[in-house]
UniProtKB/TrEMBL annotation, chain A:
<keyword id="KW-1133">Transmembrane helix</keyword>
<keyword id="KW-0472">Membrane</keyword>
<feature type="transmembrane region" description="Helical">
    <location>
        <begin position="67"/>
        <end position="87"/>
    </location>
</feature>
<keyword id="KW-0812">Transmembrane</keyword>
<feature type="transmembrane region" description="Helical">
    <location>
        <begin position="40"/>
        <end position="61"/>
    </location>
</feature>
<dbReference type="Pfam" id="PF04172">
    <property type="entry name" value="LrgB"/>
</dbReference>
<feature type="transmembrane region" description="Helical">
    <location>
        <begin position="99"/>
        <end position="122"/>
    </location>
</feature>
<feature type="transmembrane region" description="Helical">
    <location>
        <begin position="155"/>
        <end position="176"/>
    </location>
</feature>
<feature type="transmembrane region" description="Helical">
    <location>
        <begin position="211"/>
        <end position="232"/>
    </location>
</feature>
<dbReference type="InterPro" id="IPR007300">
    <property type="entry name" value="CidB/LrgB"/>
</dbReference>
<protein>
    <submittedName>
        <fullName>LrgB family protein</fullName>
    </submittedName>
</protein>
<feature type="transmembrane region" description="Helical">
    <location>
        <begin position="12"/>
        <end position="28"/>
    </location>
</feature>
Amino acid sequence: MTIAALWREPLVQAAVWSLATILLYLLAKRLHRRWPRWWLMPLAVAPALLMIAALALNVSYRDYIRGTHWLVALLGPATVAFAVPIYEQRALIRRRWPLLLAGMVAGSLTAVATSWALAYLLGIDGELRLSLLPRSISTPFAMEVSGEIGGIPDLTAVFVVLTGIIGAAVGDIVLARLPLRSTLAKGALFGVGAHGAGTARAHQIGREEGAIAGLVMVLVGLMNVALAPLIIQFMR
Amino acid sequence: MDSAMMHRSISIQLQRLLRRNRLVQIGLLGAFWAAGDVLARTTGLPLPGGIIGMALALVLFLAGGLKVASMKRGANWMLAEMLLFFVPAVLALLDHRELFGLLGLKIFALIVVSTTAVMCVTALTVDLCYRWTERHDDRGAVA
């Protein structure tokens, strides 16, 4: 069998792309540990390198995702993992849930309102604008909401990840400028603003911040999934 | 060794395995996710399986049916490496070449401005409420 024929085997492609994704992610992580700049975040570097490889080899997104979908599917069990930090911070949550709820409602409303208004100002409309709206929810939820309100779920996933990368960078700047007293506010900022990537950043800042970010991210997701039908009604 | 004792020693060994082995714990997380997924499908709940699985795990922790230690190592690993699972989703950009241009710049600007606004509003709301309740509590303590 020639190499070209071997490459056409779906199983070989799946193995190669999965391995490439994992290795480039690990490489990007090392890079970031060595030079901790926001634009060297693994979530920015690894996809960029993979995209260059895919373009060079003329591989389409469909071919790529067919082999690597199992990695995305691991977001399911990863969501279950949030039960641990949430359980460990249960005392704090029980005492402070009204504050967190207030932040989540205010943050979600700001997310939808600013996305809608800015899209309008910049002349972005139709499916693209609808795909931008569920951006502040973590991926599995966001894709669901996007499909429901008439957006393109694939694109929403990209916007969610972009929001995470940008949010983790912006979050550090906001954190340095705002006179925040409570760890609650610091965690909520990352959980509502930058979900998965932000929560990972919050975990690096502190255990409590990380747990609150994780909790708030999950709860904001739930809240927005529940509110999506209302939002569509409002926009029609 | 009688059968009751043997049963106990097996269950102790299983618990030990569960507490030490990260891979087994990740399997357990997967089992909760799968259970959540089945529940979502059979009941028609409009929630992802992971969220239902998380709720199940939380309920079991709170009810004392499951020790947090039997999930902690696996969970911490999953949370630390979660960014990896987002990587393949970004490649969807390959199908949307129209975003590599002015439109992409507009979207980038929108995300930067909107995310900054969301973070400021969320953090300030939480912090102002926090200060307000603290002051409230102080007054209560004095009175």
